[in-house]
Amino acid sequence: MVEFLKNRFSPYFEQNVFKGPLYTQAWAGLYIMVKIKIENIVAYAQVSDLLDIELLSEKFSGASYNPAEFNGLSVKYDEDKIAVIVLGTGKIVCTGAKTFEDAENFIKKVINRIKKVGFSIKADYQVKIENAIVTTDFNKEMHLSSISKGLMLQHVEYKPEDFPGLIYRMDDLQAVLILFSSGKLVCTGAKSIEDAKNAVKMMEEKLSSIGAL
User: Fold this and answer.
1) Mean pLDDT value of segment 149-176
2) φ and ψ at 33, to 5 degrees?
3) Which CATH class is domain 44-129?
4) Full-model pTM
């Protein structure tokens, strides 16, 4: 888990140095909802039971296919910020989108290209969110060691010698939150934007309740 987080959130790495006061007094249970930024929407659709990726790679101009490294066809859009991956299992995955609507539209673009090659597509396919990654910034230095003790231990992982962030799991929302000493918070794993927002809101409430905000 830690290695996965290191690779995915390397831009958020920072030295876990405590600079400010340990805690500020909580506002009698009140909190101010912080602004949330959507970083990435990973969406998918199961459109077929089987797709011939090699044939598609021959028909798709501008697509990349290197089976020695990855057995999937990659189609990139929007100056390579968005990638749509087509798998032989009939699953299509879009990553890099900032909204669900964009992810859905790019998946549909690829589906239309697949149809033109001659493959049939399931009429009842659905585009779903696999992972909604959002971030926020509390704009306050956090003392992660003390916070880890104030939160429920069974949900917390804090090993600064391995990873500079505090990892908090919200199993009911299938979300993982990573809090850094700078006050930055990353939420990953949620299956909808609403779940991601709720996870951040709940984390803010928990931090406020123990006096960390």
Assistant:
1) 89
2) -70, 125
3) alpha beta
4) 0.79
